[in-house]
From TrEMBL:
Domain of life the protein comes from: Eukaryota
Residues of the Reverse transcriptase/retrotransposon-derived protein RNase H-like domain: 5-73
Keyword Cytoplasm included in the entry's annotation: no
Alphabetical keyword list: Multifunctional enzyme
DNA repair among keywords: no
Name used for this protein in its record: Putative transposable element
Taxonomic placement: Eukaryota, Fungi, Fungi incertae sedis, Microsporidia, Pseudoloma
GO MF terms, alphabetically ordered: catalytic activity
Amino acid sequence: KKWKWTEAMDIEFDNLKKEITEMENLFLPDYDKPFVLRTDASNTGLGAVLYQIGENGEQKPIEWASKKLTPTET
């Protein structure tokens, strides 16, 4: 069965992006520690998060990015 992206999903995705970009829990980088970059891509968009691992093993996000692809880019 083919999966279909709906308008409701698009609205929820936009809400999620807004919440992520307004997060107060973004951290300043510690340049003495390694960075981790995770990326994801689909036929409709791209996403990435840059983070570092904290003292207790928690992921400390430094920056988020996402982009909805245009029809020309897909």
